[in-house]
Each structure stands twice: as C-alpha cells, then as structure tokens.
Amino acid sequence: MNNVAQYDVESIRNDFPILGEKIHGRPLVYLDNAASSQHPAQVINAIKELYESGYSNIHRGVHQLSQDATKAYENARATVRGFIHADCIHEIVFTSGTTESINLVAQSYARPLLKKGDEILITHMEHHSNIVPWQMVCEQTGAELKVVPISDRGELELDCFSELLCERTKLVAVGHVSNALGTVNPIKRIIDMAHALNVPVLVDGAQAVPHIPVNVQDLDCDFYAFSGHKLYGPTGIGVLYGKENILSKMPPYKGGGDMILSVSFEKTEYNALPYKFEAGTPNIAGAIGLGAAIEYVQNIGLGAIAAHEHGLLEYATSKLRQIDGLRIIGEAEQKAGLVSFVLDQVHPHDIGTMLDMEGVAIRTGHHCAQPVMEYFKVPATARASFAMYNTFEEIDVLAESINKTIGMFS
Ligand code: C6P
Fold this sequence. Notes:
This protein is an alpha/beta fold.
C-alpha cells in the first residue's frame, strides 16, 4: 500500500475528472501514461478560461486581448524556464512536441555542419523520433549514424559508448528515459564524456520530465527536448531547450510570420531568440495549458511524485514477477515508472484487448522503438506506465487482469 508519507493520491485523483470514468462498466485504471497522461482540472480550466475570456493572437495586436494573451503565453515560457532551470527565457523554444524539437536540431544545427565522414551517435534504445531525424540528416549530408549497444538488462553499454565517441562524432543524441524499457540513462556521465571531446549532446527528455527533476544547467546538456502531453499538458505543444550561444548561431528551421524583424524581396532579417524558431501563429492555448500543467506538477513536487511512482514501480515489478510465464523486458537498475512485459502464450495485442475489458488501459505494440523489440526478439510488448495519480490498488487490478487473461488463453 501507499507508504509515501503525506502524499495524498486521492486528492490528486480528484483533480483529474477523467479518472472517475468507467470503461466497459469498470472503473478506469489508466496505465498508459507514457503514451499520454491525463489532465487536471487546473489545466482544462486554464485553456477554457483563455478561450472564454482571454483569447487572441499574440505578438501582433495592440488591443487588450492580444496584450493579455501575449503575456499569458510568455508567462508559460517563463514557467518552463524555471521548471528545467534554464539560464534565460531565450533558450526556451516552443515546438509541437519532442519530435519537432529533435527535427529542428537535426535540420538547423546538424545539417549545415555535417559532411561525409562525420558521425552522429545515438543508442539502441531510442524512440523512432530520436532515430529517424538523424537518419534523414545523414542521408542529406553523407554523415554516418553510429549506435551504442544495450545489454540484456536494458542498460547502455557505456564502454562501447566511449569507444564509439571520437573526433568524427559531431553530436550525441540520447534518451533520458527509455519509453520501451523504463531505463533511466546516466546522462550526466554521458554529457561529461562527450564534452571531454567537445561533442554537443541532445537529450530526449520526453519520458523524463514527468518523473525526474531536470536541471539543464547542472546537466550541461546542449539541447533538451520534451512534450507537453506526457506532462499532464495538452497535445501539440513541446519544448526545445538549447544553450543560447548555440541556438543564436543556428539558422531558422521554418520561415513565416513572427520569426522575422523585417522582410523585403531583397533581404529578410530574422527575429531574435526564441522567436526565430517559432514561425507562424503558435499553439497559444497549448503553451498556456503546458504552463498550468507545470505549475500543477510543481505544487505537488516532482520529488514527491518520483517517490510515489518509484513505490508503484517496485510494487508492480514484484507482483508481475510472481506471474508464471510473464517476462519483464527491461530490468535496468535505474528505472522510471513503467513495466514492459510479454506473456508466454498471449500476444501483447490480446493482452491489451483483454485488459481493456477490465477497464485497464495499457499500451501494446513496439512503442515506436522497433530496434528495442528486435534486440529482445519480441514483436511487441505490453506496457503499463505510471503517473502521479496511480494507486497500489490499481496495480492489484492490473495483476488480477493479467492472471485472468492467462486463464482465458490457457
Ligand atoms: N512516446 C509512447 O507511447 P511526441 O510524439 O513528439 O510527443 O513524442 C515522441 C517521443 C520521443 N521520445 C520518447 C522517448 C518518447 O517516448 C516519445 C513518445 C510515446 O511511448 C508515443 S510513441
């Protein structure tokens, strides 16, 4: 049971209207948080209030509504800055999500720099969003993609990392937390090793920011990418953090309104950071919703959330280990709150369908990490991923539902 002192999970749950829903007549047990988490009323209300009484386009109008919406949007940027401890707000670029943030770096930072013989170093446990943009830029420039292998526990082979890291490496791109395995990578160590050779590092923080306090200045990473929708915020909004001295030298990624200071047919002058990278009308409500989500998380405290989720992870791991024929995929020493697993006799998709009938929402499939599936020689896994509002009783329901599924298929 929940033994994390003073963590009031019931009062947190009351903030999330969807958690009161029933699915197939059963109370919803939402364990698909790594795909997308749910939203507290505070986030829903911030977006509702914006549209009801404060909405307009931003950075464009002298009228009051535009001024107010601009202020709310820029306040959200300041909230993000504080959340990841960036040095200044110019280093916070709003994007549509982790995927766009990584593509921005691939095309604006790496593409002009790379040539034949250069290398980009990633790892075997990356999400497709941290593989394909690098493959694309390698195709465009003749550079080569190098991949750090993983072990059977689902940990990075750090010795191989240091062997692969060399003077040809122009960028390291690594996930902070693996979405398919739950592994928390030693990114501080990785960044220090890369910096010793003057190689910049991009961290894919999509699965980290909801669970682990992040301080980009302590980490000294060059880029950090994450999405709003895994952090109790809206879809279609995300963040690229980049060091100011690097971002300021990068060319814009997309052209359009708001990313310019002046335009003529002869010469266009680009806007200052971060607006240079925010062409067109941005996701105003998304940014404001993300700001509200971060404030919500900060009020509860990421330390307390992490402790609660760690308890859930330990409890779920020990319960699932007791199930005959269940194999956990990803047993790293340092893990965030998710468990990927397969059953001897049941395909993951059937597990997902059976659990859904019990009201339990998990994700099944390759989790956009096909190289991980290939490494573990499985077509897919079932994945239960936890959030601040999950309970130990819900883990019991998960385990009972898996046992029931095994019973039906045997
Ligand atoms: N992982 C999952 O179910 P976007 O789609 O841009 O918000 O995030 C992409 C992404 C990048 N990196 C990691 C480590 C991720 O986990 C994800 C998204 C979801 O695991 C959807 S595939």
